Amino acid sequence: MFRQILRTSFLKISDLVIGGSKFEVLKEIRGILDLDKLQIRKVQLKKLKRLLIHAYETVPFYKSRFDDAGFNPYEFNELRDMDMIPILSRDDLQNNFESLKSSKIKEYNAKLVASGGSTGVPVRLLASQYSRDYGSMIAETGQRLSGWKPGKRTLKIWGNPINVARSKTFKQKIKNYLYNETLFPAYSLSDIKSFSELYGLLKSKRFFCVTGYTNAIYYLCVFMRDNNLKIGYRIQYVFTTAENLQSYQRDLIEKYLGPVYDCYGSTEILGLGYECPVCGNYHVMDTHVFLDYKDSTQEYKHAIITDLDNFSMPLIKYQIGDLIIPTTEKCARYPLSSFESVLGRSSDVLQLKNGGRLVIPSFFGSKLIKDFQTISAYQVERVSEDLLIVRLATSSTLSTNDINLINENLKAQLEGYIEWQLEVVTKIKVSKNGKHKILIDRVKV
Question: Which of 215, 229, 241, 370 has the fewest Cβ atoms surrounding its Cβ within 10 A?
């Protein structure tokens, strides 16, 4: 309770110093999980219409786009009217940076943010202070779906060298104390020594919650499994984010740490979807975003997202680069929009020259690592139109029989479409920000 009071005071002071709005947002979103479906939809439609009118009046790109499409934002009254607006691509963001700015951008304390390019196309955009604050605070609301509450001792396995340097500032140290958080840099997890250090930290302090990059948490559990280690207690909440969570990863994390609740977001738009323990699906934060789908004959759909809170450089019907499996299932507890799962990034789909597609996380991850538990990680690299290198990381030697079985699995999926070679390694390198790239495509078909 004492930390909670201090935290509220910290938000107020921080807002005054930097011109933020976290305290205002916190009051606004506090009762969202208690709203019924009609109330949520009313808030979403009101915010959406306000954004569309603002974009038409102050953003040259959308003025032209809406006029060309015959879309009148002043007459917008229902979600299906959004069908008239063309999709905003990542190329649009790259090529129209100046014309996507609002003429009132100085009013919004905008900050330049950039995606890391995990979809294959890195982008830059300007995000208002309010939208960043809303996304940050709505993330807490999404995590509350699991029953979690802020303030309990938390370990964050997160960040690149810049993030870690910021965590050592006086302001950040105060924030870490008030939020009761300890940061461990994900990018440093590159050898046994760093994993031993992380394991020692977990064992020495009784953490209530662990949150961080999916693969960083998973590899920690691989280290524990391979070295027959246990921390001696159960963590109540493990929040995975930033990378696609596979079922084999969930199984291992829950065995060695505690129950997993996956979170879905992006650099461009924070706080998108959160796993619900009641229905098992992901709930969309409808008062913050509008989620739609691009038509597709596949089981998966391309996620199309509108950020309702960024007025400095609006993202309206933005194809974010994620593949999602929709659902029509209703949740018995929360009336928020839902989807079944995030299948992966569009850049994780291998397009073959015959027109076929191979979803790398779905096949290589679930199939290979479930069947061959000595494999801790994998990576697929297409080096030519006709050849894949399938890289498998394992802490023990694969037998001839294992190799033959793996090739049989690959044969069923790849034979007649593309050749492949197996490459067995001790580890697969992660990027500088601590993330793991599943597919490297040297040849775009």
Answer: 370
157 neighbors 211 (Cβ within 8 angstroms): yes
Residues 6+ apart with CB under 8 A from 301: 293, 294, 295, 323, 324, 325, 326
Distance of alpha carbon 419 from alpha carbon 417, whole angstroms: 7
> What three-state secondary structure class fits 144?
helix
Helices (H) and strands (E) in the chain, counts: 14, 19
Written as six digits, the tokens of 112 are 């330049």
What does the alpha-carbon distance between residue 151 and residue 179 come to, in Å, rounded to a whole number? Answer: 5
Residue in the structure block whose two tokens are 């979600």: 79
Put the strands of the sheet holding 439-441 in their side by side order: 419-425, 387-394, 375-384, 439-441
Alpha-carbon gap, residue 40 to 33, rounded angstroms: 9
CB 392 within 8 A of CB 373: no
pTM: 0.78
127, 16 in Cβ contact below 8 A? Answer: no
What are the phi and psi torsion angles at 172 (to 5°)? -70, -35
How far is it, in rounded angstroms, from Cα 130 to Cα 307?
A: 12
CB atoms within 10 A of CB 385: 12
Q: What are phi and psi of 44, to 5 degrees?
A: -60, -45
| Paired strand residues for 255 | none
CB contact set of 251 (below 8 Å; sequence gap of 6+): none
Single-letter amino acid, residue 180: N
Paired strand residues for 275:
282
